Amino acid sequence: MAITIPGGLNLKETLLEIKAEFAGYFKEREAEINGSLLAVLSGENLLFLGPPGTAKTQLAGSICQIIEGGNFFNYLLTSFSTPEEIFGPLSLKALEEDEFRRNINGCLPTAHVALLDEIFKASSAILNSLLTILNERKYHNGREIVDVPLLSVFGASNELPEEDESLEALYDRFLFRYRLSYIQDDENFKNLLFREPEDFRPSARIPVSEIEELRKNANSLSVDPDVEIIITELRKNLQLQEIEISDRRWKRIVQVLKVAACSSGCSAVDRTMALLLQHMLWNLPEERETIRKAVFKLVVSGGTDTEKLRQDAEDLRTALSIALKNELPVRVVCDSCGEEFQLRETLEVHHAACPNHSYTLRQEGNSRIYPYDNLVREIESLHVSSGKKSTLSQSQREVFEIEFEALADRINRVKKRLEEEKELLRDLMEANIWLSTADRNEALLLHDTGSSELSGTEEFITEIRDILSLQDKGGRAAGSVPVKPSSSGLLSEVSHSGSHAAKVEAKVQASDLGNNAGGFIKGLGSRFKLR
């Protein structure tokens, strides 16, 4: 259900208008603008890490201006800052009545949006009250517990907190995290210096009541099953890399995704909403790229590593090639001790034990004696001239066919999913107003890269099929089977620019999420020796 803003626009249209205004003024800050707006709408806090002079204060202040009747509080904290500076001075009138109470008017407890610069320099006297405000939106003013109107607190810092339990608790309260840098593009830099006005005032306004209604509507929004799979697999992935995320953060992340979907006019949280996880999961700046790649891989291809599939196909072809050459094209006899060989591996073992022995071929018309190196070249030549596609034993053939069928089946399923999902991704991302242009482009590029890698993989599959002399039955690759729907029946409903909803299939199959095909060469080696 679309939420209508006084004046005729619905919330989605208003947000798009606000985003366009902000992006036109704050250059190279699209992701930060999206995160700031979404933090306010979802009632979460946001942290900016970066050097001074990157427009952190101006951005936070401008975000507050879009709140109808919003109050903005801004303060630079130092290690000497006192509670009076943040929460207000002691009330003299209350002291006369033997009560300890502060006059909070105009201070943090009465603000809708606040920016606390150098947030991690907060003293312990400030910290306890600050943690309660950040987490519960309540302030203990003497005997009274005050519900604060804060929609979001923006924290800013040049550096992360040192190892301190209290500061780590404070850090965990900031769900959104962004690393800011100075403007990079020359044209944007010139616009900042010479063309943009100093004072920026957004024209659109959002009443607090509409934000509250949005959150209420978001609570009842469903989450697509594939999003549940993405989050579960991502958590496992991060745990393996010893990146721990608190249960509280995961719970709040899901609520943010619901608000993002609801404000985009979507009827459910689809997988493109999960791309926002990249801004809410890292603890250290060096973890950002690792998390970003993991998120995109899960969202775009269900975690399937198409490069790994290609490598598996290449490894299988290599193993098959080695196995084919293991059976000698003719029998070989050691001229020195008379031992006879039919397999290349036993010949190699003999040569390692007796490096000076020479050999003859049991071939009509050939009585030459070969040193080992010359013998190897002759054997290679005979393999080529024989034109044999397969000299595998029955047990070897069965092993290779099983491995081939399993790999071909996985490739077929991934190919089908990639073919189906491109238009799906486009539709979902067009409906999602919270993705940056860079995120959209990267998702589509990752999809195209996966499709390209899969084309190279199919060439290996064709070559393996030819070597094994398998038939392509019914126009399908040997070993392929019809792709069955995911057991969870994963369906996403997409709302496209307010038009009718279209149910589209969004498959993320758990069986392809890990490296479950990895190491099959090692598995082959355990079944029969490949040298």
Automatic annotation (TrEMBL):
SUPFAM superfamilies reported in the protein's UniProt record: P-loop containing nucleoside triphosphate hydrolases (SSF52540)
Highest taxon of source: Archaea
Molecular function in Gene Ontology: ATP binding
InterPro entries hit by this protein: AAA+_ATPase, ClpA/B, MoxR, P-loop_NTPase, RavA-like_AAA_lid, RavA_ATPases
Entry-linked Gene3D superfamilies: P-loop containing nucleotide triphosphate hydrolases (3.40.50.300)
Keyword annotations: Coiled coil
Domain (AAA+ ATPase) ranges: 42-190
Coiled coil: 404-431
Pfam families per record: AAA_lid_8, bpMoxR
PANTHER family the UniProt entry points to: ATPASE RAVA
UniProt protein name: AAA family ATPase
